[in-house]
Amino acid sequence: MQATETTEPSLLSALHANLWESLRHVFNTDRILLAVTYTVNFAGFVMLSATVGRRPTAAALTVVALVVVTTLIMLSLLNSRREAESLLRTLAMMYRDQGLGAYFDDTKIVYYRRRYALWLILAPALCGFAIALGSPSARPAQLEQT
């Protein structure tokens, strides 16, 4: 019986550490996804600005690439949101079970749910801005003639 009592806290500690490590991994992945979102959309904007008038095929391919990459990023963010919510829910349950629910509760889940909702708005908005601002209709007529 004593082996079980000493094993349970060490298993609980190991589980706790693994959950936090998994959550850090999810958040690091999200940072990379957001950096890719900014970079790809800026590159798409530059590409559209440079090619739209002279190379319509390249411009069309750029738009398609922006939409595809943005869709993949949004799918990845949706997956990250599900994983983060699951991990946070499990951590909140663990803290509650240990009598520490006041220090880690469901408000963390609500916070991250809002954060992901903003990111899921940001990704397609950046794509839309890159396409709109890189297209000739978004430029003033004077710039078109130069």
- Count of separate DSSP helical elements: 4
Uncertain stretches = none
SS class: mainly alpha
Order of helices and strands: HHHH
In this structure, how is the largest beta sheet organized?
none
Proportion of residues in β-strands:
under 5%
Mean pLDDT across all residues, rounded? 86
Q: Give me the count of strands.
A: 0
Task: Give an account of the 3D structure.
The chain is mostly helical. 86% of the residues lie in helices and 0% in strands. The protein is elongated. The mean pLDDT is 86.
What is this structure's SSE topology?
Layout: H1 2-51, H2 56-97, H3 107-134, H4 141-145
Please provide a brief summary of the model.
The chain is 86% helix and 0% strand. It is built from 4 helices and no strands.
Record keyword descriptors for this entry.
146 residues; mainly alpha; 4 helices
